[in-house]
Amino acid sequence: MKINISTTLNDQTLEASVYPNQTLLEFLRDDLSLKGSVEGCGVGVCGSCTVLVDGRPVSSCLMLASDAAGKRITTIEGLARNGDLDPVQEAFLKHQAFQCGYCTPGMIMAVKGLLLNNPHPTETQARDYLSGNLCRCGTYVEVLAAVKELAGR
Amino acid sequence: MRRFELAEPQTLEEACALLSDDDDAKALAGGTALLTLIKHGIFIPKTLVNLKKIGGMSGIDYDRQRGLRIGALTRIYDVESSPVVGEHYPWLAEACHVVANIRIRNMATIGGNLAHGDYQSDPPTMLVALDAGVELMRREGTRQMKLSEFLLGSYETALEPGELLSALVVPPPDNWRGTYVKFTTGSSEERPCAGIAALLRMEQGVCRDLRLVVGAVSPRPVRMHHAEEFARGKEITEAVLQTIGSEASHVVEPIDDLRGSASYKRHLVGVLVRRALAAVIH
Amino acid sequence: MALVGSDVTMVGGLAKVTGAVNYAPDLQFPRMLYAKALRSPYAHAKVLRIDAATAEKLPGVIAVVTRDDLDGLNPYFGPVVDDQPVVATDRVRHVGEVVALVAGESREIAEEAVGLIEVDYEKLPAVFDILEAIKTDAPVLHAQRKETTAGVHREEFNFQVGGNVCSVYHVEDGDVKQGFQEADEIIENTYTLPPVQHGHIEPHAATAYWEPSGKLVLHTATQNPSGVQEQLAQIFKLPENQVRVIVPLVGGGYGGKTHARLEPALALLARKARRPVQWVLTRDEVFLTGRRYGAVVKIKTGFKRDGRILGRQVEAFYEIGAYALNGPVNAKTGCYVSSGPYNIPNRSLTTYSVYTNLPPTGPFRGVGVSHVCWAYESEMDDIARRLNVDPVELRLKHLVRERDIFVTGEELTSVGVTDCLRRTAEAIGWKGKEEQAEPPKKKNLLRGKGLAVAIKSTTTPTTSSASVRLNADGSAVLLTSSVEIGQGLLTSMAQIVGEELGLPFERVTVSSPDTDLTPYDKSTSSSRTTFHMGQAAQQAARDIKNQLFDVAAKKLEARIEDLELRDGTVFVRGVPDKKISIAEIFRTRFGSTVGSMFGGYCFKTTGGLDPKTGKGKAAAFWFFSACGAEVEVDIETGKVRVLKTVAAVDAGHAIHPKQCGLQNEGSLLSGMGSALFEEMVYDNGQPINSNFLEYMLPSMEDHPEEFQSILVEIPHPDGPFGAKGVGEAALPPVAPAIGNAIANALGGVRIRDLPIKPDKLIAALLVEKEKR
């Protein structure tokens, strides 16, 4: 039996019907075709599925879609406004903090979460917060450079 | 994920009733551990009882006389970042901070963490050192229990069928200095190979009280009563630290797992205990 | 140069930072179904009976394929040996082997259906350990070797008959027995490496459908579309123009997505289902689909007290899993470099690829080279310690140089290894012999520095074809079957074409692979793309340039030698008012500014080795690298902290230096993970850490505090603008550099079995303590 939920997604209110066993990640990708959040591991470790729930990063692969009820969800698709990139996205571009790009949206959302929590993190704080987002291609140095610039503002 | 139904009770009583009446129902808190197990086919519940709609189950209250009371559904991150925890039990904040990653800490609940009984976890070790207690509720009524008695083994707790962990109680702190050390043998992001919780109360260079717990190496956190006895009333010299470390090393009964062999863990515990205490003193 | 050698803005960034990239798992097609596999729970078993009747009747299940659906196909395939069945036939040879594949209206339905398929197995004895597998009484996985007819396979091997040794490779120089006789000292050791994961965050994913005309279409995350196309054509007995392979941006490959993996079974299922079917693996399934082979490397070295290495004998056994994939290639590629980038007069090098009842392997960043490098570079430091000489000096004495003859008998060109080593030593602050001094006593934290070098070949001979299409407005498209896996080819290829055609960077686009449109490329692997596809692209662009010059020369009444192409215009050198734009050239040639001009080029490298002697030409280009590491070892806990690493690679000529640096960063991280903690663990063939909770990739916190990437540039005469490849270069020397740093920190305590986890270190220190 489907569950009706009312949620706010990327600043838009949304009424939806979800299955009990549907994860938020599946809901975003399958029902809403928001493919920016991706699955890398399914167990909350790699962070490629990171979205913000009420401003806090979570692993959407381990969150039930029904738990989105009454929450404010932000995905990578919701960062840019009217075609203007978010400063985090700008910084990633400037520092070329990506290679294959698969982990990039999750990494960006984690950085967004970090800065919402702490606008001027030190490198130690940034590393500590972001260490739960994995990248195999090798972009950690560039991501930290982007964060350093953002933290300096 | 396999199909299941979702029940969303509004009260704790309702939740307990649902769990009592249905053997195939499981309580869902943060979901980070449970959903992982369901995805791997280790649990195949017919119904998940989502506790998160129940009011009054999260929140942190502090009182000088009674200490901390933490609602079971309080997220680990909220325990970690709570001002009262930071002020009065900073070592508990430390133990929560090293759990997994920020996303998991935003989702997982302290009650869920304790009820899951994963031995490779950090908060239980420190909470046992703090002599924490748990409040358990079921249809028949509530009961309290020491956390150290609640945790029985690897993924094994004293929870009865139809029973829920509703709150965590931590006695008032006692002028301690303390630390929590999480040691990993692989990536920094791994679960702990060993966790050391140490709380020390010193007066004029002499140890008045010691709480020492070793976690993650064996199926339940182990309180080092003998070492604590030994330390009380003594000046904590290098020699005393060696003895305590050695004692801890002998007392633990570590198990082999992917993080390390039993013999390595035995050796490691001695080293980490000694260092944790040295760090607290200096 | 305008573009080549600059850090131009990397292509595709905007889509990546906005989540707008459509990777293979993101694609959706009308009426698409979802696939789920039934996998063997046993490592080795006969498949007695499969009954999918109940599964087929489940509402929402559209089709199930098993061995009963293989009629009319060539059911076995592989890039070197045709030993891998599309789905299991008479037996299964590893835990996780696909026995059936279900297509359902939803993932959930497909998964439920999988649970309803009944299979009866009869367990067979299995073998997992390399050295057990080569014994004559070991259970045999494949009774014979049927070499593939696939054109992708242009190399030759010594296949073995009977037993589990798939192939043997051997090459020698001089007389190693003599060398050992003349030596003052001989050391002999065995090194081991476990299997590890590629770790691409995007799992394997593909969608297949058959057009009503009977044409097969695959949208798949693969590193070699041409190879997959050929394999599918061979399996389904179709001409290649009836098989179309399309590749979106790939979320990381590192070799794991090379060769047909999901595609054959998926195509079979899609044909039966008559609808598009998508198959995306879960992370656990990725562990069952591809990995790096484990290995046992036995190495014996004879040397004189004056520091000359006289002889080296290496025997390496690579465990390639249940199906060969490119196992023989890996073993061969490791063979001739197994004595290192050194001039050693007497050597005997032998490698074996060995079947075991473990999941399949395949190419992995660094191929079989990391394994032997782990051995020969650890030995090098041990020899230096024995002789009380500077490990760097010892290496410099023996390193190959420009025009040296290598063990394969070929002359080496573009040899940057000495530069790599010197610059690495400098960057790491190498002090010389004293780096191997006795460590201070009574300290718990000991620091040490270590270095290592490596040599690797690029697969040779191979072919890469490129086609460039120039539009009338002076913009161009490069049509290539090379795959953007994150290495940045969409950028570097555009730089090459833009440089050749004198076009601004924004006016050159690189296509994604589509075998209907893009010409043949062997694969995006072996660090070959910049060199091979880059050369093909440059020559294809030159072909167009020549066509433009032909028209311009006539129109401007000038000699071709005096023409220059810049900013979309052809100029006559020295005569500024004599010029003609590309648009005008089109008008001249076609009557108006419409049409396309094509340039094409097929770049073939020649060479190859005689399998009997191991001699010939192994590499169109060699790549060289060095790694330096500084570590801090906690001798009480065994924990190793990597403080600083330096990766130096010989890039020939860096087309995009920043991208080269990024590749080095990835190689370093991967190497570090396999050095210190990455390890796939099995229990009787059953993987026990097949998820990212139990098998962790290096995190930001694990990353060394300091990392420096150095690009040495010794141009290669055959590379585009002198460029070579760097994708894998930095990886092989990482583990030995870290191992050497640890050994130097500990006064020579040597771990020979990867990964160097804390408990191993403590055990080794205990043994050392007892010895003293």
Question: Can you characterise this structure?
Answer:
The complex is a heterotrimer of chains A (153), B (282) and C (772). Chain A is of the alpha+beta class and 153 residues long. Chain A has 2 domains: 3-78, Roll (Ubiquitin-like (UB roll)); 87-151, DNA polymerase, domain 1 (Orthogonal Bundle), CATH 1.10.150.120. Chain A is built from 5 helices and 5 strands, in the order E-E-H-E-E-E-H-H-H-H. Chain A has a 5-stranded mixed beta sheet, with helices on one face. Chain A is globular. With 282 residues, chain B is an alpha+beta fold. Chain B is 36% helix and 26% strand. Chain B has a 5-stranded antiparallel beta sheet with strand order 4-5-10-6-7. A 4-stranded antiparallel beta sheet of chain B has the order 11-12-13-14, with helices on both faces. In chain B, strands 1-3-2 form a 3-stranded parallel beta sheet, with helices on one face. The longest helix of chain B has 20 residues, at 262-281. Chain B starts with a strand and ends with a helix. The mean pLDDT of chain B is 96. With 772 residues, chain C is of the alpha+beta class. In chain C, a hairpin with a 2-residue loop joins strand 31 and strand 32 (686-687). In chain C, 26% of the residues lie in helices and 26% in strands. Chains in contact: A-B, A-C, B-C. At the A-C interface, helix 2, helix 3, helix 4 and helix 5 of A face helix 1 and helix 16 of C.
